[in-house]
Fold these 3 entries.
Entry 1:
Amino acid sequence: MKKGDHLFLVDGSGYIFRAYHALPPLTRKSDGLPVGAVSGFCNMLWKLMVSARDTDVGVVPTHFAVIFDYSSKTFRNELYPEYKANRSAPPEDLVPQFGLIRQATRAFDLPCIEMEGFEADDIIATYARLACEAGADTTIISSDKDLMQLVGETVSMYDPMKDREIRVPEVIEKWGVPPEKMIDLQALTGDSVDNVPGVPGIGPKTAAQLLEQFGDLDTLLARASEIKQNKRRESIIENADKARISRELVRLRDDVPLVDGLDVLTLQPPNGPKLIGFLKAMEFTSLTRRVAEATGADAAVIDPADIVVERGEEAHGPDVGAGEQVPTSDLAGKGAGSAGPVASKGASAAAMAGTPTPANLVATRAAEALAASIDRTAYVTIRDLDTLNEWLADARETGVLSIDTETTSLYPMEAELVGFSIATRPGKAAYVPLAHRNGTGDLLGGGELLPGQIPFAEALAVLKPVLADRSVLKIGQNIKYDWVLLDRLGLTMAPLDDTMLISYVLDGGSSSGNTGGHGMDRLAERWLGHTCIAYKDVAGSGKSQVTFDMVDIERATAYAAEDADVTLRLWRLLKPRLVADGLTSVYERLERPLIDVLGRMERRGIAVDRQILSRLSGDFAQAAAALEDDIYQLAGERFNIGSPKQLGDILFGKMGLAGATKTATGQWSTSARILEDLAAEGHDLPRRIVDWRQLTKLKSTYTDALPGFINRDTRRVHTCYSMASTSTGRLSSSEPNLQNIPIRTTEGRKIRTAFVAEPGRKLISADYSQIELRVLAHVADIPQLRQAFADGIDIHAMTASEMFGVPVEGMPGEVRRRAKAINFGIIYGISAFGLANQLSIPREEAGAYIKKYFERFPGIRDYMDETKATARDKGYVETIFGRRAHYPEIRASNPQVRAFNERAAINAPIQGSAADVIRRAMVRMEAELEKAGLSDVEMLLQVHDELIFEAPESLVDKAIPLIRSVMENAAMPAVAMRVPLHVDARAADNWDEAH
């Protein structure tokens, strides 16, 4: 190598995990071998090499190598045995692909370099040093922060997913320090993924400020006593040794004893037959065709190569933590790629064609979507099996099938399938009617099947193998509904993509993703400039509305096929945004895997005892009647208790109680808060009204209504879960809503006794203990809270002791109750006014409590201030797993609107992180149960921080420890929680006893 040469070093281990997480699971059709990561790796490498060999643009490499980690054990483990100790084993379906990816690299005629005892980053550092000494330039293909310490005059990095070059200014912009200080910065901040300890409480911004002030780590440690902030000073002094060992762990070795010198890395022209042979063996048809065209080889005469599939211990490779290190913005979505570092250095628009970056792919797709008109007259009604087979064959060719079912009900466990629509390409959509009838046209339906429809069973038999074909991605809008319905009919549908959930991940809470913003009609108007046919336009509304089986087939075709067509167009536009916006990981790990998990939970339902509900309904009715008599006696007259106007006239007109306010209509306000305030002041009538409202609501909402939700076929209640209805990622349920049953009242708990296990089985309730406070202690890094949770101390008693100086032993219940109110209130941004109302104390006293709280736990105030600043700067906040909650109105000029958004922004990372933890647990739970031989243990319900299972009595003792373990370790390996998660789990005959 000489001056003027250019070395490209690909971080192969990073590519593996980008490839693995980029696409839906993929298997080789001939034998089911997992090859998704191999496919993604080959496609990314080919795109990079095509660009690298394009002499018309920018820099052309003369030397090229792909560097891999040999294993997770290196010399660093001798320095610090806990290094990377918290990483779990790689996914089972990824293990056999490690060896295949190395064979793929060799098929590309590229050096495949690894060395036992060293990480890939050390090898990259060594080659970069040698190239620099030879006078050559180096480009490292990676975005890993660990490699940024190498950036300099002759060494740059290139992030292929963002199509972005990283030089010295970019490092400073990102981290606040130049590359030569990255080692010291990482020594201070540590790395939870690699288990590098760092200094607790020191984040990147603080570390950069300290290094700017003191120059380097050694000077900082020597002069730590000069740091003004008490907490920061004490933490650095106490953890100086951790900082020093962390520096040695993050410092890259550039003296690795390499076997191959730089000259071995000379870039060779691609060997078409060799590469095609490997690709044919892997059955990568599309890439085989592109390589054949580029190299002039005749793929038809080339035989598949012999490959070796390494499994189990033979297949060494980086552990799963390497995948967790990859920033979410690096995870490529289907159809997204990059032109490579060459394209970023002056590539023309023509040179970029066919290999778009995520950002320009999004722009291109958005322009195409707005420019393309939607022609409903082009939609087809499929009335015979031959035509249906032709359409499904096209789906296999394109690899995508947009599908939507038309039914007789909004509830999939009750609905009957009337027909389904499909789309295989934008504008190519059809409707398959199955059960349209003639009749009177009323809600009761009736009548005979209309002619020209494929027999129901025959259509489903043809559809079934395509729905199960993992090489065809099924796309839907709220596809969980279709999944449940089709699963009832014996049809398995996988893999799945959901445009509603993609939109939810991208724009949750933003102006484009507020209430109703993820519905198809709203998305079509926003992104396609198209107004969809309204359901009422085909089925009528009010008394004249009919079920879909009574809709004319031609009108049904225009409506249904449009749904499938629009969904496909939205998917093409929105899916690349996940990559461009850095949100692929959120969608792929928290949303998409949960679709069929929730679908199975909805299918299972839960048993409800009608007799218990009937008895409770009678009890509530008697109690409400007794309260009514008390209310009339206290009011001095009979009136309509349910009438806010009449109640207001009694309380504020006749009785003249203080604290009255009026609504916008001029009536007295009788809201729950006002009644609670009046009751707290000692007024009996408002207290009776509150109790009456609670009882009558429980009776009407649950004891009277729940029997109507019992399915006539399964004899169980099947709630419907909504995945995209909150800004924080919390699930909600409806029909019936099982998440709002009160648990802090005796009456509410009685309702839970009606949810029962089947004979010979038990219900298991597994509930996270104070998870939001634990998340707060983690994100705000509060030493006292962390220690209390680690020691299993009563957190509210500890808080009271810290604040009020009262010993934990023998603490009065009222003192603990006040601390508990503050603990939970802080999470929701409670004000002095709110706390005063909650504790029935003067506002000044409540303000003093809050002030004292922040003095004892200053990290919480820091967290709140930093979170509000971040929200104002970016317009959103993030959970610890990267989910975004948007608050565009946090900059509003209206103080009340602004304050509300600030409180919501403070709470969202905490509540959202807790919601993400339980989502991760749910995604993993079924596989872990099956692996342990506990497939008869079924997950039935999710209620906020609680999961409810049903299990045979004989399996309960084995199931509970496993369920608890999965839930308590759900954050790993993505996030190493500073605070242990704790789950309480019990089994009983009904839900109340199990909780």
Note: The radius of gyration is 31 Å.
Entry 2:
Amino acid sequence: MKFNSQYFKTDILAGLVVFLIALPLCLGIALASGAPLFSGIISGVIGGIVVGFLSNSNLSVSGPAAGLTAIILAAIIGLGSFEALLVSIIIAGFIQLALGYAKAGTISNYFPSNVIEGMLAAIGIIIILTQLPHAIGYDVIHEREFFFIDKNGSSSHLISDIKDAVNFAHIGAIMVTVVSMAILISFNKIGFLQKLKLLPGALVAVVVGTLMNEFFIRTGSPFDISQEHLVNLPIPATLDDFLGQFATPDISAIGNLDVWIIGITIAVVASIETLLCIEAADQIDPLKRFTNTNTELKAQGIGNILSGLIGGLPMTSVIVRSSANVKSGGRTKVAAITHGVFLAGAVLAIPFILNKIPLASLAAVLIMVGYKLASPTVFKHMWDNGKFQFIPFLVTVVAVVATDLLKGVGIGLVVSVFFILKGNLKLAYFFKNEDHVEGQTVYIELAQEVSFLNKAAIKQTIIHLPENSKIVIDASKTVYIDFDVLQLIKDFIAIGAKDKNITVTLIGFRDAYKIENQTHVLSV
């Protein structure tokens, strides 16, 4: 793992913020899955430390997957024990490892950006809606990312839950939420607070919310928030109690066909969710780096194997935690690893302190994360990109909110492909040199119409260009360039070419594409 001291302090603080968000998520997902609460913590620790170390992603944060909640709940009931499920998780891990070596991760290159943007915006909306009950002290809906199942395993209708929440609102929780939101907004808007990089607003909001409730409790105020509305972390009394929270797989279940079917299902769903989240994390990376998705699948596979061996839930890359990581200043994998270390340290050293944190404060943090993902600016940006970008984007938003992540993205992809096929009947991309030698000039000739399906080939070409080389991108015959391909070229010119001292010559690009002249770029 490469260490970059430039971002060390901000990565540590980002890891702390992600830890505060991930802790109740780990517990809530375990509870909704019908699994031991500690299994969620195990998954979070492994996802942070092990997957964080092995992954090629600088920003992705892994942990227990909300998208697998229904599968896990049904599997525990069907298999008859949590220990049998652990065998399925191990099988899923080995399948993911095999997919990584088979280079199946390249499928992520074919997710168009309008669908990824739609997924992010939808997740932002869902985060806000699911956290509103917590924000006013009605904690029926557990923290999760994509869909809603209560602790008994039955479906929960989101709108009716929000209406019920209003009837059972708690004044103390509302006060904590309002103050926490005010702190978060202040840190985003006030200049001198924005410069306090060592003191993130989310951390201040959580600390202040906790102190407010402690004041309510100690003064006998009717506004005090009771324990059921606070973080609820198991507190073992002895070492044996702590070790007893780990579980081992029931190896005798290996011959059960259902165990294998569940393992395959977990592997497929977890891999797709991971690839979606990795692509989304790369999309919001301020440094515009690319993740090797095959390496990511291998890392996830090893993480799930280890999680299954010691009693954890299956994991994926999780966009809620990953986006919170970016927004909190995380820039390298140190942040993800740090969040895992904090999770492990917290359950060992200070569970009684963590259990004082109001869920209302955490809800305020998540609502701000959700707003940034689904702000009006995002919708305006997609509108300005034209109907071919906006319609698939909007369809994805609605579909994800109305169904779940995988179904919604699938619907968005169908709509996006329809528009691409309608406007791009001829797809082609040509380049003259296969072997790139330092100092050599590589010619890329774009066809009459270039779709996002060409993105993977162009991406691989520019990634593997050696330092001090030259590239000529000729769009003289091009009538249409897909937004994804155009953005890829822009990002390469802005960062990749400069970093590797590559001279880029652009030929025939129309003014509508707005690729500005920059250092190392020649326009003809």
Note: Confidence is low (pLDDT under 50) at residues 141-156, 517-524.
Entry 3:
Amino acid sequence: MRAAVAVMESEGVDVVFGVPGAAILPLYAALQHSGIRHLTVRHEEGGTHAADGWARATGKVGVSIGTSGPAGTNMVTGLYTALADSVPIVCITGQAPLAKLHQEAFQAVDIVEIAKPVTKWAVQLKEPGQAPWVFREAFRIARSGRPGPVLIDLPVDVQKGLCRYDPELDAPLPVEVPVPAAGPVRAAVRMLLEAERPLILAGGGVVGGEACAELRELAEQLQVPVQVTLMGKGAFPEDHPLFAGMAGIQTQTRWGNAAFLESDLVLAVGARFGDRHTGDLQTYRRGRRFVHVDIEPTQLGRVFEPDLGIVGHARPALAALAKEAQAQAGGRRAGEWVRRVGELRATLPRRDDFDDVPIKPPRVYRELNAHFGPDTTFVTAIGLYQIWSGQFQHTYRPRHYLVCGQAGPLGWEVSAAIGVKCAFPDRPVVAVVGDYSFQFLMEEVAVAAQYRIPFVIVMVNNEYLGLIRQAELGYDMNYAVDLHYGEGGIDHVKLMDAFGCPARRVESPGDIAAALAWAGAESERAQLPVLVEIMVEREANAAMGPSLDAITEFEPTP
């Protein structure tokens, strides 16, 4: 196992998240003599989410470790989350001895077969001599093409074996960076130049492909407005005059939807056309042509057939488009379309300046935007608070807005924030959580407390399952969504105190700013996670609908 650990070190891994157990102890025996830091998490799902957050923040491959049996099954949600959002992680599980696998041995489960649908590769080590090469291949697969998770299963007797390995003669395997063909690039630029109202749509592949500079160069050269998907937030600075907002049925801006509906061509790069972005496809596609650029060939045409498909890595693809644009058109000045997008931005904002008590959710995000600077990394998960975050929060830099987009596992945020803070100890980190999501993996607060990992947790608490209640309105019911915060419920401030961590509850909008300032200072002073619980109105809804036509202003239910 020393060979496997040496491979991880050479692949840039400096921290791993895991739970030791009998079937994985040979790997831990090798790990203890390495330069890799290990954090003992409280649940294997939390470990995978922490590795996920570390990977999203760094762009490198995160690592999570567990023992046999339920450790691996607990990792499945984290594997699915990483696969859905194209995040490179490697999960390592212990296993019963090879000779016992068919005998229903203690905690012997076929985790490889279980994990195959939610990984790019799931493999069990059969011989000690495979160890360095299987680990090398795992990191290569996780990073290549559309990135994603890999699972390595290690029978305990194989872990104890010996192999010949010289780390001085080994290095990471090369990762192919597909370059687009010249013909489709020329055609795409012609389509951009012919369009009257073109948009560039930047998805998560632009962030993951480190292609943000190339995106900006192309947009500025042709003066084409840029929209981002939820996974693409941060790919283009939101204070740039060419920023055109977000389109979608949930995480969207009103003016972004309006601009999209007025567009006649969309150049989508590294975007998968998720259903929460597109809504009704007839509305989404009507009146506009699409050019789709993606590193994964089978992604083209998966949701709908584009007018032009281009296979290529986002960075060289955008660089090639910019070079071809220079050749065909040179520099261009902003025209009427750019001015129109600016007009929409100025005239179709959502209100966020409410002074009401109980607090209206948009006011929370107004205060977050005002208090935390552009270097802050925000982490958020799924629910009404994610939708409001996408609608109201401002992002200016790549890898500074991290969200579990497609899988949407509750409980993701605290663990992911731990991973981000381990990657960048000097960067401010804020986890925006819902009350119910926080409770899914709230034991992971103990990890941050034990290892003195400081970050701010902002809880948007409406005291029940707000998104589900909003969905239930279509069924004319209000069933099974009350969390009973009165007698027998959870007091989150007292809960944080039990972990040895500071917390404060806010019930007036005028107190939010002071509470955020206190939390940031107290977190750094105590080197602990600090909670600000903000009580918002129970009946608040997020503006969303079945298609992009739903651009109504935020209107809370009376």
Note: The domain at 2-169 is CATH 3.40.50.970 (Rossmann fold).
